[in-house]
Amino acid sequence: MKKNYTPPSQGIFGQIFDTVLVLVLVYASLMVPLLFKAEAKAEAAAAAAVETVKATWESLGQNAIQQAQWIKLGYDPEKAATLINSRFDYTIDPLMLIITIVVVIGYFLFMLKVSDKQYREVIAEKFDN
Amino acid sequence: MASEKITSSGNKRIAMLKVLNPFHIWALGVGIVLVGEFMGWNFTVGKGGAYASLIACWVIGLLYTCVAMIDSEVTSTVAAAGGQYTQAKHIIGPLMAFNVGLYLVMAYTMLCAADALVVGDLMKSGAEVMGYANLDTKPFVVLTVAFLAWLNYRGVFATLTLNLVITFLAFMSLIVLFFAVDPLHQGVVLQHQALLTDLPYGWIGVIAALQFGMWYYLGIEGTCQAAEEVRSAGRSIPLGTMGGMMTLLVAATITWFVATGLMPWQYLGQAVTPMYDAATLLGSSQLQLMLFVATAFAAIASANGCINDASRAWFSPARDRYMPVFFGAIHPKYRTPYRSVLFLVPIAISFAFTGLLDQVITFSILSGLLGYTFMTFNMIKFRKMWPLGSIHRGYIHPFHPIPAITLLTLCCATYFATFLGYGASLLSIMAFYILASIWFVLRRYKYVKRADQFTMPWPRPKGY
Amino acid sequence: MEFWNILVYVAWSLSAVMLVWMVVDAFMISSQYDEEYLMSSREGSEDEVVHGIHLEEGSP
After folding, report:
1. Which of A30, A32, A65 sits opposite B195 (nearest CB)?
2. pLDDT at B28 over 90
3. Pick from B2, B80, B389: which is nearest to C56 by CB?
4. How far off is chain B from C28, nearest CA to CA, in Å?
5. Which value does ipTM take for this structure?
6. Structural domain that includes position B121
C-alpha cells in the first residue's frame, strides 16, 4: 500500500499571492487584444473618410416602409448611411485560422492528458488504500 | 483568543441551507439569461442579417438543449455546489476541473459586470428622458453590485425569491409586447415583408451570428450551482433547467419576431436596447415605461444570478484547495459562501470600469463555450466509466451519444464564429487559460489532497 | 437638477454602507468562530447522496 499524499498547508501570504496572480493574468488577457484593435480602428477610420457621397434613401436601397421606420427611429439618410454602409469583413486569414485551431485543440489535448494522469493518482489513492 | 472561539463541537459540520425549490432553479437559470433578450441578442442581426439571427437562435437553441440534457443527467447524479467543476473533478480529472472552475467564475463575474453597466446606462437614459443629461452612471453600477452582493451574502432564499419575482415580470413584459404588436395581422404594426431582406453576407454571416446567438441562452447551465441549496436536487435541477430552457426558446423567438417586424436590420444590428426601441416605435408611453422597467429588472436579475453562481464556482474549488482555501468558508448564520461573495465585488466592479465591455463580453461568451466543449467528453466518459445501472442516476437523457456529438459540432462552429469576429481576443483568452493551467500544474496542485477530492459514493470507475 | 445630485450621493452612500457592513461582519465572524469550523462544509448534499450502489429502475 502506498502512503497517501499529504499536501503542505499554504500560509496567508501565499494565498494572497496566488489570488493576485490570477487577477493579473485576467486583466492582462483583457488588455492585450486592445493593441490589435487600435490598429484595426485606424484602418477603419481611413476607409470611412473616403466615402463622402451624399446619401439619399434611394441610394441606400431602402423601401418606403423601411424609410418610415428609420424616420420614426429619428434617423435621416445621412445618419442612417453610416449604419447601412458599415460592413463586417469576413475574409479569413488561413495562417491565423490554423494557429487558432492548433491552439484550441492543443489546449484540450494537453488538459485531457494531464488530467488523466492526475485522475489515476486520485483513483488509486481513493480505492486502493 | 482561540479558546473563546466557537469551534466545531464533536462531528458537527457547517453546511449551506437547503431551502430552494424548482421555481428558484428556474429563476436562477432564466434570470441570468433573460437580459440577453432585451439586449445583446440583436448583434446577431448585425453579423448576418435578420434571418441569420433566427437561424442562430434555433441552432444555438439546439446547442443549449444538448447542454441542458447532458447537464441534467450528470447533475442529477453529482449534486454539489460548483456544478460542472465538481463533475469535471469526478469524471475527467483535476486540471480539467480547475479550468472549468475558472470558466465559470470568469463567465459569471464578467457577465455581472456587463449587467451592472446596463443598469447604470438605463439610469442615465431615464434621467435624460426626465430632463437631466450627463447623469454619472458609476454610483449606480456600484450600487447594483453592492446591493446584490449584500443580498447574496445574507442568504440564498431571499436572493433567489427576488430573482423569481423580477424575472417573471420581465418575461411577462415580452409576452405583453408580443400581443401589443397584433401578431396575427401582418402589415398593421409588424412589417416583416418590407423589412426582412436576404442574407446580406450569405451563409458566412449565419456562422458569424452564432457567437452572439449564445446571448439568447448564456447562463442557463448555471442552475446546477444551487445543487447544495435545493431540496431534492436530483429532481429539482433537471426540472428547473428544462423548464427554463423552454421559457427561453419561447422568449427568444418572440423577441426576434417582434423586433425584426419593426426595425430595419441595419439599425437593429447595433441597437443598445432593441426591445425598448420596439416599444418606442409603437408610440405608447405605457409600453415604453414597461419595457424600461423590464429591461432594468432583467439586468438586475442577471447580475444577481451571476453573483450567486460565480461565488459558488469560486467557493467550491477553494474548498478543495484548488484556489486559496480562505475562500472555502461558509457563514455560520446565513450559510452562504460569504468570503467568495465579498471577494468578487471589487472584481466585478473593476471589470465594469475597465471600459472594455466588448472584451469582457467576449471573455464571458468564450468561457461559456469552453465549458460546453468540456461537457461533450465529460458525458462520453461518464457513460463509459459508470455505465447505466452501475450508479443511481436521477435522470437519464435519451439518444446518447447524439446530443454529445451534436454539441461538439456546434461548439466547433461557434469557435469559428468567434474567430471571425474576435480572433485576437480568442487567442489572448486561450493564452490566459493555458498559462493558468501551467501555473496550476506547477504550483497549485501540490496543495490539493488527492483522494479527498473524490466525494461521491460511487464504485471504482471502469478502466481505472 | 438637485434631485439627481442627491440621488447620486444616496447611491454612493448606500453602496458604501452595504460594503462596509459586509466587511465588518466578515471580520466579526472570523474573530468569533474557529476557522476550522467555518471551513468544515463537505461537498455534496448529505441527505441526497445515495449510499452504496443502486440499480436504476427498468435497467437490466
Report:
1. A65
2. yes
3. B389
4. 11
5. 0.92
6. 25-448
